Amino acid sequence: xxxxxxxxxxxxxxxxxxxxxxxxxxxxxxxxxxxxxxxxxxxxxxxxxxxxxxxxxxxxxxxxxxxxxxxxxxxxxxxxxxxxxxxxxxxxxxxxxxxxxxxxxxxxxxxxxxxxxxxxxxxxxxxxxxxxxxxxxxxxxxxxxxxxxxxxxxxxxxxxxxxxxxxxxxxxxxxxxxxxxxxxxxxxxxxxxxxxxxxxxxxxxxxxxxxxxxxxxxxxxxxxxxxxxxxxxxxxxxxxxxxxxxxxxxxxxxxxxxxxxxxxxxxxxxxxxxxxxxxxxxxxxxxxxxxxxxxxxxxxxxxxxxxxxxxxxxxxxxxxxxxxxxxxxxxxxxxxxxxxxxxxxxxxxxxxxxxxxxxxxxxxxxxxxxxxxxxxxxxxxxxxxxxxxxxxxxxxxxxxxxxxxxxxxxxxxxxxxx
Length: 418
Ligand code: AMP
Ligand code: GLY
Prior knowledge:
about 30% helix, binds glycine, alpha+beta, Dna Ligase, domain 1, D-amino Acid Aminotransferase, Chain A, domain 1
């Protein structure tokens, strides 16, 4: 069985690592991959956004399944193109992927199917003046979101009218994210703890299989700018009432709504939630697994993840395979100086082998190999993961492992799992 994993980040490193442990005995390919995936897979130099080349390669190589890690190829319609050309792809089609590629579509969908989400208004760039009037009449903070994909940077929490107007100007007039920020959602600020919930679906059936928490802010104590994610833990322990509110009011209504819209969903669906005094609210959908949540989730799954994804891909999801995990996992990301705005890279990385003797695994992300030396090559460089019988144990081993790693300008949060 040949599988092609699309991507090159920490999430894809974790996916490849886990698939390598499967009873399914996959022959794994990664496009484009990184020096970690090269240990278990053949890296193919095709970019994530080159959907045609990915499918051409898959047809030529006799790939049985394409597993896109991130949203890029999914948003570009890799599932539609795969279906057209006869290749199985574990991802939703472009129309269903609007859950992530258009916040306006997602919010309207949530409203239509009574999924709890913050009250919101939508404005296009032609309505800039109306948007300015609107924000003048709000209580603060408020949340402004670019409609389209913005690499995790399209959400601003504005604390004053001035900041809100400035953000609207950046997004709508100056097109900070191009076409993606021509339209915006302005929504009420919600207070609470965040949680990430992950479901897998086969086009017909679906099931929640993991709860995690992502540490999105750059600095300790949830300060600093939002990032792609600086660390994660799994599971997040929630009481039974909260879990059932999530699964009934958010997850179930979403999959039932998709079916009613004629958009059967295949692949992973990630619900970003705020657990408020008034119950769980949907913040966002992602049509994929999370990065770095995946790095924490996969090491504690004690069933065959490879078998799970194959069953989803062929439309026969093995729901009974999914079991509660009994262990805890902690993942801490080491980032380059300057991340997320302008990471400075190209520095040698040392101590990975030693770190892996203490923690469980070091998943590489923004790393390249030159003359046998690993060099930093991106904002999020690597993530260290350890598991344990308690979160404290997992956390202690993760940080102990991380302390052996060094590169110039290395930055990480010290409060993941606290
Ligand atoms: P999103 O991409 O929509 O999940 O937004 C990114 C991050 O912004 C979330 O993980 C939250 O930390 C924050 N956020 C988004 N929407 C809200 C909201 N309505 N209230 C408070 N925080 C929010
Ligand atoms: N951890 C956030 C994301 O994957 O979007």
